[in-house]
Amino acid sequence: MQIDFQGSGLQGARPPPDADRQRMMWINADRVLYLGLLGEPTVRCFGGFSVYLSLRGTHRICVDGGDWQDCAVSVVPPYVRHRIVSGERMICNLLVEAETVDVAALPAHLRAGRGAVDAPAALQRMREALDILRRADNRRYASTAAFDEAFFGAPLRTRALDARVQAVLDRIKSDPNGHVSAQECAVAAHLSVSRFLHLFKAETGSPFRSFRTWQRARSLLYYVTQSSNLTDIALDAGYPDSTHFSHSIRQVYGLTPKSIFAGSRKLALYASGAGVPRLGYH
């Protein structure tokens, strides 16, 4: 385990009595771990591999309009619409950004998962990693590799990308609220727009516009503990107005921004790396 405990001595300790009420999120540019309220989302659609983990019982998931499935752990591929209902008040959701991993080398339950997965060893590992994290004083992983080691047993192999596409990804992820266009990226890559868009999708598996939309919506997670006016947050996050902001966020998360912020009031947020706005975090 490569999380920095800073001498906390809590790795083998019993969880505190209020452990089930400890809501938290750890986020960097490549991964997200959310432990908190699910709410009542409608259809949602994330741009990364999404792993849902029930803390003790089960949840129900419906992927791309298919049948509802009951399970303790489920996986949804990137950009696939789904619905989820939890049998518990809180749930754990892990997000792995698709462009950061070699899909063919992913663990089987991630690579082939589409809804409920039967992976008891993976379930046990993830629950144990989550338990250690919840009992730690310093809830930060030193790196993406350290996070992967804890929850997946080893660092996930990175995807080898064309240098021109990698430069675009780095640019967008370092400033997800910016308004970089395909035209600008094509010029920087010395390609025509059509050739750039084709190359981007071939390399990342995602259309350029979908990736940019997801990164902007994902950046909202850095703001959820802030008390600012939602209109101001919409502008800070790169949306032209509050109406567009509300519609776009609901399309991704299945919840309105108001509901997301209401459910995050007691959330402890730990953010690091590229793309973090200059806000006051733990």
Automatic annotation (TrEMBL):
<dbReference type="Pfam" id="PF12833">
    <property type="entry name" value="HTH_18"/>
</dbReference>
<dbReference type="InterPro" id="IPR018060">
    <property type="entry name" value="HTH_AraC"/>
</dbReference>
<dbReference type="InterPro" id="IPR018062">
    <property type="entry name" value="HTH_AraC-typ_CS"/>
</dbReference>
<keyword id="KW-0238">DNA-binding</keyword>
<protein>
    <submittedName>
        <fullName>AraC-like DNA-binding protein</fullName>
    </submittedName>
</protein>
<feature type="domain" description="HTH araC/xylS-type">
    <location>
        <begin position="166"/>
        <end position="263"/>
    </location>
</feature>
<dbReference type="GO" id="GO:0003700">
    <property type="term" value="F:DNA-binding transcription factor activity"/>
</dbReference>
<keyword id="KW-0805">Transcription regulation</keyword>
<keyword id="KW-0804">Transcription</keyword>
<dbReference type="InterPro" id="IPR009057">
    <property type="entry name" value="Homeodomain-like_sf"/>
</dbReference>
<dbReference type="GO" id="GO:0043565">
    <property type="term" value="F:sequence-specific DNA binding"/>
</dbReference>
